[in-house]
Amino acid sequence: MSEKELFMNRLFEYKNEQTGEKIKYFPKYNRSILEDCRGIYESCFILFQPFFGISEEKYVMNFKTEIKDRFPPIRDFTFPSDYDDELLKYRYSYNDNYPKDDEILLASNSLEWQEIAKLSKVFKDPRDIQQAIVTSIGAYRPAFQKPHLAKELHLMSWKHNFWFPKENCISPLLRSKFYNVLRHLGIDKVSQFYGSPTPELNLNKMNAHEFSEKLVSPHFYTQDKEIVLGTAREKFYSIIYTKKAETMSSILDNFDLEGILCTEDTQLPWDLSQDEYATLIGKERKF
Known about the structure:
The protein is an alpha+beta fold. The chain contains 13 helices and 11 strands. The protein folds into 2 domains: 3-48 and 169-261, no CATH class; 51-159, no CATH class. The strands form 3 sheets. A 7-stranded antiparallel beta sheet has the order 7-6-8-9-10-3-11. It has a two-stranded antiparallel sheet with strand order 1-2. The protein has a two-stranded antiparallel sheet with strand order 4-5. The longest helix is centred in the middle third of the chain and has 13 residues, at 147-159. It is globular, with a radius of gyration of 20 Å.
């Protein structure tokens, strides 16, 4: 096996430097997710990071200013003749005008991937949305890129006025929802993997908004390791793992989360079949 293949198939783990404990938070590539997690987790759910639109009514109510003062229109344009790179950058999280977490949490409407897919005949399902958004930020290797899907997604974002999810993080909209999920399950403490000045969060001492502000790591786990959430780098989804299948059932039965409940056939990359993945890998090796 080549060094590249070893990297693509390595086990992703977090090591607690104080205890030395290792916690698995992302599966191997190009194999069944459940197979990879067997003996550790019974259930896995691929969670989509939501798109969102800023509500003018909510913005004025919460921030006491007109939305046009915060997000002024760049210029008038028509589709598709005015399509250009400068317009595209505006919808990404690295743009200076991208809504702040508080603005997303208090003044936005969440948009599911299924809703986005229905906006254009070019998109068939959320797999196309995944391929479009990952292509658009340059995170796919050349053989995997789908520029026609990326262009369509950008055009739809302007036509229907929505923003892309932020990469490499848990959306503020989901962080707030997860506070309620954890409370529903009777969980009062979670630990963040890294990148936070407060690695342990006590839910008894904060509300949902405060939890959303303090949960800055893209990965977290509960004290008993019953629930672990790992976020894919530059892929706009996370994976929820639960030790018990009934825990996952309780989450999905009581909370509106968009994604894919993994079966024995679900693998990474989830947006490609094994045959598609093998074909694209073969093309890449010819470059």
